[in-house]
Amino acid sequence: MNRPVKLRQPEERQRGGSPNDGSIVALTAIMLVPLVIGLAIVVDSGRVWAERAALQNAVEVTAASAASTWIRTSSVCPTSVLAYLTKDDATPSSHSCTTTGNSRAGTITVTATDASSLFFSSLLGRSSASINASTTVKIGSIGSLLGVWPVALCEKHPSIVAWRDSGFSLTTNYTITLQTGPQNCGSGVGGNWGVLDFNGGANSTSETINWVKNGYEAPLDVGNLVFGSPGGLTNSIGIDSMIGKTILIPLFDQATASGSNALYRISGFVRAVLLGTRLTGAAASRSLTVRFETTIVDRPSGSVGGGSNFGITSWAICAYDNKGVC
Length: 326
Description:
The protein is of the alpha+beta class. It has two domains: 22-141, no CATH class; 147-299, no CATH class. Helix content is 24%, strand content 33%. It contains five helices and 14 strands. It has helices at 11-14, 21-73, 79-82, 158-165, 205-214; strands at 94-101, 106-117, 128-145, 151-154, 174-177, 193-197, 220-221, 225-229, 246-256, 262-278, 287-293, 295-297, 302-304, 312-320. Strands 1, 2, 3, 7, 12, 13 and 14 form a seven-stranded mixed sheet that branches. It has a five-stranded mixed barrel with strand order 4-6-8-10-9.
């Protein structure tokens, strides 16, 4: 009796193989291509972003230092300032420093470029990416200021006119009387000086003394209308305690009404050293003796923009990569 013959399966079948295995391997390889490309883009993009952030930070520091140096020395981006371009390990391959206007009213722009090496993307034929950064700083008159004195001076007084006309170079000591001079700033309010009331007409003597010694604690802006008194220069407000010290004097270009209803329109600010006082007797003999000085005010103590420059200059970043209003 013949027995059925049991056929042996091919070895591939016994091992669980499939004729589709080759197709799966090929498909997997194809799918890995965009994954690898995506990974390369992510890794290299992160590297480019980090290097650009370092370059932008270095450019910002350089531009800020360049603005301050330009105001103080009239020198545009000296070597000592450009050294900041390597801050935070930035390695710019080229840079530029350009200006508009002048060191009292202008802009200064610092730009830098570099090439960021690409690791994974180099496998695809791209070895580097160009990165750029720029910062523009605006320079101008102070438009808002902290710590000002509560005693304002008419901007049309001959001492202020001479100070401005000299380009802020005079070192003259001026004795300015309280009484109306040959040029005044109002038809209703007489006097070169006015004692301001930052509390809207409700100030106490102790408040005024505090403002005299420490300056007003809030920002005073060009264009503000402030109540004041044209006859308030007396020993009672503690001005004598400031002799020999630097003060920030608000200037006014218009004074209206009279007495305790007087309103002073702030037009700018000037820095001075108080050298002497005479606060007794008639208004024609009361006076303050001052010497004006230039200074630079950085934020947050002040802001750029406003009225004319009376020797106090400020600066602020106004644009990144040509985006911003300067």
